[in-house]
Amino acid sequence: MFLCWERAARLGGEVEATGPGPQGRRREFEEVALVHLGALYGAALRLAGNQAEAEDLVQDTALRAYEFFHQFAPGTNCKAWLLRILYRTFLNRRRGVRVTVAYDDDLAPPAGGSLGTTVGNPEEDFLRKATGEEIQRALMVLPEKFRLPVILADLEGLTYREIAEVCGCPVGTVMSRLHRGRAHLREALRELIEPGRSGEWA
Amino acid sequence: MTCREVLLDLETYLDGELPVRATLEVAEHLASCASCAVREEQARAARAHLRLTAPRPEVPQALRERITAALDRMDRTGLRATRLAGRRPFWLAAAAAAAAAVFAVWIGRPADPAPLILELVAQHMSVARLPEPVEFASSDAGAVAGWFQGRAPYRVSVPDYSRTGIRLLGGRVTDLSDRRAAFIVYEKNRRTISLFTFPHYGESLARATAVKRDGRTFYTQEVRGYQLLLWQERGMAYALVADLGWDELFQCAEGLLQILRFS
């Protein structure tokens, strides 16, 4: 309650519009959740691959989040919570189209010897030359199960645990997918920036 | 820690996900090993570049507006926001108690309406109160039907009831659970008549009363003094909501069915 009043004061004193009533709930939702609309839209576009579906996804996600806002635990990462709803909505819409719930292949260790070259290899300064468009294109060629962890970790800054909750898989799977996703991304970027020099895809 | 071990852990280290002890060991190594420190610096720079350079698509203004409008609707009705939480707006309890079997074919006892029916009635009620009930105002049925093209992913038939004193106000697009619905608004004697067209997902209408007419099954239910008439045809559902009595609603349904028959 005090928080609400304090926040109202900071926002220019529309104190009467806050409090435990529906208006307070709406304001809380706008401040805590709707500020992440951009992140949701970016993730939706990269998941769906087209604007119309991305918009529908974001709208469904926002409404569902508002409906279940009482279930959100204050103090936890609201963006992660929203992205989880987004991904579930996405899967629900795709249900019947195809279902991919296989972790086995991810659990296999990445190809031997690749680890040493995946991070900060001096030859990989090309990464810093990548343009926004190249990054976008490289992300979109990633298989979906690798793309999502990379987006969540590297663009949205989620923790492994949060990513695991969004994707509905164990933390170990997240680590493996993230690692392989980043390796894929690097190779895809290298192919875009320095064609012909690409190494093997993991 | 050897250089190789550090490089193996570097990714997780930069993610801030190494256990405390391993984090300290990597940090210690990086502080004393110049070549690993260079690799760390490059990896950090590459990450920062990726994060800052990846396009951040702008949220379309129209999408923001749609979301705001939908949230407003939820605020007004309180329906969707409370339904699944197991709570119902107080007026629904009152409505269920007060609902009387005014329709001649009514055989069931008043019961909580199906969620879809509640939502239809709630949308009718909220729109009926708005000073601007439509997004596109026109009394020309053809113009309203044209306006829906591209806004609804299916063809929307707009009946003209003007000969029976029912005036077409216009159309709006609304969201009904997970789908887009075409919402046509009419008026008679200052009473609103709503006609919804939407893809039928096979929701349960079990608590509505089924009425057979001309070999067709209509579902009827009265909620808080509003009559709702719903039927399905070719994968679509049509619903009329008003407080003008059942005769008027069935006449409206008949008018729409005539158009559909010729389309």
Q: Which features does this protein show?
A:
heterodimer, A: 202 residues, mainly alpha, Rna Polymerase Sigma Factor, Chain: A, Arc Repressor Mutant, subunit A, 63% helix, 0% strand, elongated, disordered N terminus, disordered C terminus, B: 263 residues, alpha+beta, Phosphorylase Kinase, domain 1, 2 domains, eight-stranded antiparallel beta sheet, 9 helices
H and E string of chain A: HHHHHHHHHHH
Number of continuous helical runs of chain B: 9
For this entry, what is the oligomeric state of its chains? heterodimer
**CATH overall fold name of the largest domain in chain A:** Rna Polymerase Sigma Factor, Chain: A
**What's the order of the H and E elements of chain B?**
HHHHHHHEHEEEEEEEH
Distance between the termini of chain B: 77 Å
Can you name the CATH architecture of the largest domain in chain A? Orthogonal Bundle
* Number of self-contained structural domains of chain A: 2
Task: Kindly state the percentage of residues in helix of chain B.
Answer: 40-55%
Derived structural class of chain A: mainly alpha
Helix content of chain A: 55-70%
Mean pLDDT of chain B: 81
Number of helices of chain A: 11
Q: Provide the low-confidence segments of chain B as ranges.
A: 81-110
Describe what you observe in this structure.
- The complex is a heterodimer of chains A (about 200) and B (about 260).
- Chain A is an all-alpha fold.
- Chain A starts with a helix and ends in a 9-residue tail after the last helix.
- Chain A folds into two domains: about 1-95, Rna Polymerase Sigma Factor, Chain: A, CATH 1.10.1740.10; about 105-195, Winged helix-like DNA-binding domain superfamily/Winged helix DNA-binding domain (Arc Repressor Mutant, subunit A), CATH 1.10.10.10.
- Chain A has eleven helices and no strands.
- Chain B has about 260 residues and is of the alpha+beta class.
- Chain B folds into two domains: about 5-55, no CATH class; about 60-260, 2-Layer Sandwich (Phosphorylase Kinase, domain 1).
- Helices cover about 45% and strands about 20% of the residues of chain B.
- Chain B starts with a helix and ends with a helix.
- The model of chain B is unreliable at about 80-110 (pLDDT under 50).
- The chains are: A mainly alpha (about 200), B alpha+beta (about 260).
- At the A-B interface, helix 2, helix 3, helix 4, helix 7 and helix 8 of A face helix 1, helix 3 and helix 4 of B.
